[in-house]
Amino acid sequence: MAIGILVTLMAVSCVQTRSLTIDIPFPASRELPQQIQSLTLVSQAVNDQFDDLTADSLQKIFYNKNFRLDTVLYDYHMADTTLKALGELLFESGRYDYVIPENRFISSSRILGMANEMPWETVEDYCATFQTDALLSLDYLKTRVLTDYNNETNFNPFQGGFYAYVVASMKIYYEALFRVYDPVEKKILLREFISDTLYWEEVDLETSELFRRFTPVKNALVETGIVAALELSGRIAAQWRPENRSYFIAQQKHFREANQLAYSGDWQSAVSLWKETAEKTKSKTLKSKALLNVALGYEILGDLDTAIYWALESYEIMFRPLTYEYLEILKRRKSEIKNTQ
After folding, report:
1. Residue 8 needs a FRET pair 20 to 30 A away by CA distance; which of 105, 154, 193, 340 works?
2. Which is more confidently placed, 199 or 30?
């Protein structure tokens, strides 16, 4: 799935220009090779250690320990959430398509709790069945949950006395290993180990009100799975950031028609008309405006080098602060892409 630029908002900013907001793809640090456009998502992490206790049942275990517990949990729902959230994030990035099979949890031999690398016959079978370019597997997942509950007192100088309150806290430390298997090259394209600690805390005068608001352990595990998915997605899929752009408007027939096409999202046709305007006009002012619009059109179409070429053409015909600023933006984008390659 190719990545272009998303135009999200347009508005008239002044008489001679129109402004728009575009979403710029920022290349990922560990992006997969371009031939990998689709992924099957599975997991070898889930084994007999994993449970799927209800939120109430899990919470009761911690309440029975007065919410003071340090334990390792293997939660089936968290593992499943990690896969589902990861698939959605990868798709929303515009970089990958994905499939999550119904039978997505694969049995595996393991060493020290970590699944061994998947046999290539299994990889090939999954990718052939679901017609994807590679297989992404969550091959290790471990979560350690630490909860604490205490009665505290503090002095209130305004009331001249002490008051009592209760504090509950929860930390979840997780570790996850993801591998991406290429069935054609029979090569592991990515081994990514991710770990982090998430923290929750609430304070209240009453215990009942405190735990009414406090995030249940089950929910916290689900949130942790989403965080793990976000972390991996951020490493292998492009991220998007909004940036503002401006382009010229004019009353010349083809120029006006091109602007209308651009406003409707047909940038390819708009570029053709702006080029035609630039070729036929004898006005340097109109030509430089048309060529700057051509440059923007190519940026939105995903061709940064050609955008720089036409922006330079516009700049050489007539200097404008807008043209200079746009060239600086394009050079920055070019440098960012180079630094991630």
Report:
1. 340
2. 199
